[in-house]
Amino acid sequence: MEPLVILSQLEQEYLLRGIEASLKVHDPRSFFLWTQGQLQALLPHDVMVGLQFGPHGELERLECWHGTVLAAPALDHLCSRAEGLALRLARAWRQGPARPAVSDLGCSERDGVLGGFQAELEREGYGNVLVHGTGETGGGETVFVLLRLPLRPGARHGYFLELLLPHLHLALLRLGQGTPVAADLARPMSGRELEILRWVREGKSNYEIACILGISDLTVKNHLQRIYRTLGVSNRTQAVSRGLSLRLLDRAA
Predict the structure, then answer these.
(1) Model pLDDT for residues 57-79, shown as the tens digit of each residue
(2) Global confidence as pTM
(3) CA distance 121 to 123
């Protein structure tokens, strides 16, 4: 049975102010100011990562907001679209029960959804972590990862995030109403990679693609692994879906 959380009058006021402020979020700057302002009253944190997944589980977008300076290596470790820490935390949450997940340094228990990340979180200095998402919405899913919470997260913080989640989700969507573009990628796709991705879309196996292009199966496999890393996906279906959303396959045809 979930613990009952009753908001104090001050917390209710903070919540209302946070929701009202979310209605004015329409650009990256106002989103950052909102997360560093009104949201901090209920959910104090140093770093927040928002991840949008497509209908097939492919990562479509990753945004990071932080009130403290993150060195380039630390930012890459956290926000890499291939196997960054935030992406792995989000995937772990998606595989667990649809409720807020926590990992706090003051807890001796290392089981649960995020238990396997405890040592890595401690090593990277991220401290207490709170993760929650929308679940499947028909068009995909959004997950938010909050790191370096100064207080040990529990049912109360999870409830706050659950209440604010729809407003975080809608605000994030408003930041990206335009069509995704290939410039969102960490590097441009090569002509050969686009060619292979087009044949994957046609349902060709690695062997068939190798025969068509006059290369070896191993070369096709290596190209696909680079394609997956560049697109931030983990399989053929996700790669095709991501390629279509970025209009890469139009240019490859």
Answers:
(1) 888 889 999 877 788 889 889 99
(2) 0.70
(3) 5
